[in-house]
Amino acid sequence: MRHDHLITSKHLTREDVEAVLDRAAEIDADPDAVAGKHEGTILGLLFFEPSTRTKMSFETAMKRLGGDVVDMGSVESSSVKKGETLADTVRVIEGYADAIVVRHPSQGSAKMASEFVDVPLINAGDGAGHHPTQTLLDLYTIRENAGLDDLSIGIMGDLKYGRTVHSLAYALSNFDAHQHFVSPESLQLPREVVYDLHQEGASVREHESLEEVLDSLDVLYVTRIQRERFPDENEYQRIAGEYQIDLETLEGASDDLTVMHPLPRVDEIAPEIDDTDHAAYFEQAHNGVPVRMALLDRLLEGGVSR
Amino acid sequence: MRHDHLITSKHLTREDVEAVLDRAAEIDADPDAVAGKHEGTILGLLFFEPSTRTKMSFETAMKRLGGDVVDMGSVESSSVKKGETLADTVRVIEGYADAIVVRHPSQGSAKMASEFVDVPLINAGDGAGHHPTQTLLDLYTIRENAGLDDLSIGIMGDLKYGRTVHSLAYALSNFDAHQHFVSPESLQLPREVVYDLHQEGASVREHESLEEVLDSLDVLYVTRIQRERFPDENEYQRIAGEYQIDLETLEGASDDLTVMHPLPRVDEIAPEIDDTDHAAYFEQAHNGVPVRMALLDRLLEGGVSR
Amino acid sequence: MRHDHLITSKHLTREDVEAVLDRAAEIDADPDAVAGKHEGTILGLLFFEPSTRTKMSFETAMKRLGGDVVDMGSVESSSVKKGETLADTVRVIEGYADAIVVRHPSQGSAKMASEFVDVPLINAGDGAGHHPTQTLLDLYTIRENAGLDDLSIGIMGDLKYGRTVHSLAYALSNFDAHQHFVSPESLQLPREVVYDLHQEGASVREHESLEEVLDSLDVLYVTRIQRERFPDENEYQRIAGEYQIDLETLEGASDDLTVMHPLPRVDEIAPEIDDTDHAAYFEQAHNGVPVRMALLDRLLEGGVSR
To answer: Closest approach of chain B CAs to the CA of A13, in angstroms?
Structure first.
């Protein structure tokens, strides 16, 4: 097994992360310098679950580097529905592609798949598991807007089921960050995640209300509270409403507060915030391109040890 | 808001149209001259409704110019089904693409979307609204086959619901064209369209039978009468049958008559016409490529004021 | 009609086949020599049925040659569901693409389609008909692993319905091959295929058990026995089980035995065989790329007469 896959952000060192972010910043500043660099390279896209942003972002990144993609398409149009195993699928695709991106609903699937191939494989989300490139672009956006040193970040919404949130929290534990988790009690961070974060020496506090910490925050990372989590619609409406933000909510915030969201949003952030200097969520989505360009560039050169 | 979107053909001036058609003719005559011209450029495709011709034609046009595309894919496989607004979707995609093509079922959607982005946005059909690139390729095909000066054109079929037909009629009102509308009474051109055309000074006449005008026509533009418009199947069969053409129908036509159709056709034009010199509908579909190349070339250079 | 389509492998001469395989071997040995050779060329993909391997393999092949593809997408998202005929669809697409690949569920469809277009058209499977590029990559894999001279090949599984098997058998009749067909009686090769093979002078024998011939084989080509063929689940389990192979099955085989499978597999070949030197099925899938590169290269140069 090669060591240039990217499966999880959990064990990425601070140096690993900073190397990718530095490269992304270079690319962002001068994309022409790498345009065409990986001409002739083909990236295989295996998305076993729907995705807009992640898939288009990887595709854009590879094409901005001069390469191209081959896409398995939807599961319905593929051999998967004939009962092919993931191990077989990736072994077939590695004959077509120089690197592979996999999104799959099963936790651990990307790790397993990576053991069957000799080309770099990137996990683009494995169910409740990891989604390391989302974490990298989140970190990049934080660094560009607020810096990763002496950071005070609020992470709000569904903290129980959110893969994105867990990955980000683990990654931030490598940095000098004060993490404030804001959620209804029923959607708190899982106890084992809190435990792990404490083990890593992270500064972690939990809150039920944003008000308690808003004024101290450099960054507010909002995630969606999903209707499906609540058996009772009224209960959902009541709780979700408390974790939505608008201009009024942000009155107590620092002028420099950066608001992030992994998107898609539904009602969590009022559109009136879009035009303020707080809003960084579209920039955050756009940052997926330079970050994934940086990552692909390194993996294709055999550079990331992971 | 930028002024290099293309949302409607209704306000395109004769000069705007002729500039695109002239450029398309240049490209058609010497495609190699622009091959690779827009290398590194990425066009975002957002099709919220199925499309074969329009989507593949834009994709081909961009690739023939040396660029590439990123495609959102079907609505089912995208974030849209998670409740994301069109305004959010296009703002995310503009981080990936240098220009955006949108097809959406809601009238006015492309216009609205264009107000949220800083890259050129092209309307590829907004429900009952507009589809300006179809109009441009129709005009190009007419000009190549019959010329746009002193033109006598019959437009036949479903004139009530046909977005294509309305756009074409508005665009032709800028030229010296005699427009003959041929349809069953129940599928006549909407009164407000007739009114608008008269206001524009267009020469417009309406007919229930093709025979009345066939011998005077330079171009016959056939559109499909859709079964869904008729509650009664027999009524549909009877009426649709009167607006289908075959070799016998065309006996009274000029030898130079050009027959067009936006495709797909079902029974409106008998296959026996395909091999005659009248048939221009496949050429018409093919013309989508040089016309869209011309348009993309101009928009990417910031050239079309619209 | 042009003569540079590829519709069937049935009438490919030994010289035709060897010319493609030789070119594929050259490309396989030095892919860089053709990278970018067909820059600016666009291949149209029309898949009216799901496919992973074939479609991605064609796409990869075209891109490795420096070209690009435009893909009609799924039937659900295309004009086909509006009732467009295949003849119309291909005539539209030939305006976009320099060559066309068609997969369609109806036998004879590719042949019919080829009569309407002036660009090379490749049959990528027409129902129970042909799939010549699968045959070419199968022959390439056999030649690379065991050679095509004095070959002893076992072809096992569903021989009644398998398009892949029939095409391969016809193609092998041009070579000095001893063909052993191994299947349950109910899934034997159709009598007319056996008759044709005898007419071609092929060496053909039929067996109900692999044991009868295993030790004499250079190549064992395994295909899937589909559950749908059996009204009774128990009967299926019993029979399918007899035509699955694992390490124990292969104890009586030559050390040099090459095991092939067109994939996807379900239970026909135990995963424990994957790591043995017998396994050539992933290599076989990968061979689709150089073989299709060779074929596209020749067709685009106007070279294959068929």
So the answer is: 28
E strand map for A110-256: 121-126, 151-156, 177-182, 203-207, 219-222
Inter-CA distances, A76 with A47, A72, B14, B50, C105, Å: 11, 10, 47, 17, 17
Dist. CA B298–CA B292, nearest whole Å: 10
Q: Tell me the two tokens of residue A148.
A: 């990763």
Distances (CA, A) of A285 to A34, A218, B301: 20, 19, 26
Q: How many Å separate Cα C62 from the centre of its chain?
A: 18
* A7, A114 Cβ separation under 8 angstroms: yes
Neighbours of C215 (CB within 10 A): 11
Specify the length of chain A in residues: 306
Q: Which of A51, A54, A56 to mutate to test the interface with B (most CBs of B within 10 A)?
A: A56
The token pair at C33 is 């020599």
DSSP state of C100: E
ipTM value of the model?
A: 0.94
Beta strands A219-222; A151-156: pairing state: parallel
CATH number of C133-284: 3.40.50.1370
Q: Given its phi and psi angles, is residue A58 left (phi above 0), alpha (psi -120 to 50 degrees) or beta? A: alpha
Residue A132, both tokens: 């390391």
CATH pick for B14-130+288-300 out of 3.40.50.1370, 3.40.1390.30, 3.40.50.300, 3.30.420.10: 3.40.50.1370
DSSP for A131-155, written as a single string: -HHHHHHHHHHHHHHT-STTEEEEE
CA distance C296 to C10: 19
Residues annotated within the binding site of A for carbamoyl phosphate are 53-54, 103, 131, 134, 263-264
Residue listed under structure tokens 């041009």: C174
Q: What is the rounded CA–CA span in Å between residue B114 and residue B91?
A: 10
Q: How many residues in total does chain C contain?
A: 306
The residue whose two tokens read 């996990």 is A123
- Six token digits for residue C297: 């290269």
Q: How far, CA to CA in Å, does C265 sit from each of B259, C185, C225?
A: 51, 22, 10
Query: Are B14-130+288-300 and B133-284 the same fold in CATH?
Result: yes
Q: Walk along chain A (306 residues) and give the pLDDT tens digit of each residue.
A: 345 899 998 878 899 999 999 999 999 999 999 999 999 999 999 999 888 889 999 999 999 999 999 999 887 766 666 788 999 999 999 999 999 999 999 999 999 999 999 999 999 999 888 899 999 999 999 999 999 999 999 999 999 988 889 999 999 999 999 999 999 999 999 999 999 999 999 999 999 999 999 999 999 999 998 887 788 888 888 888 889 999 999 999 999 999 999 999 989 999 999 999 999 999 999 999 999 999 999 999 864 433
- C258 annotated binding-site participant: no
Domain ranges in chain C?
A: 14-130+288-300, 133-284
Q: Rounded distance, CA C93 to CA C123, Å? A: 15
Active site residue A306: no
Q: Is residue A157 left, alpha or beta, with left meaning phi > 0 and alpha meaning psi from -120 to 50?
A: left
Interface of B with C in 249-268 (CB under 8 A): 263-266
What are the strands, taking DSSP E only, across A193-245?
A: 203-207, 219-222
Token output for C62: 């075209």
Note whether A126 and A106 are within 8 A (CB): yes
* pLDDT value of residue A213: 97
Q: What is the DSSP letter of A61?
A: H
* Alpha-carbon span C204 to C216, nearest angstrom: 14
CB A153 within 8 A of CB A179: yes
B123: DSSP letter: E
Grouping H, G, I as helix, E, B as strand and the rest as coil, residue C244 is coil
Beta strands B258-260 and B151-156: pairing type?
Answer: unpaired
| Catalytic residue (choose from C53, C111, C229, C286) | C53
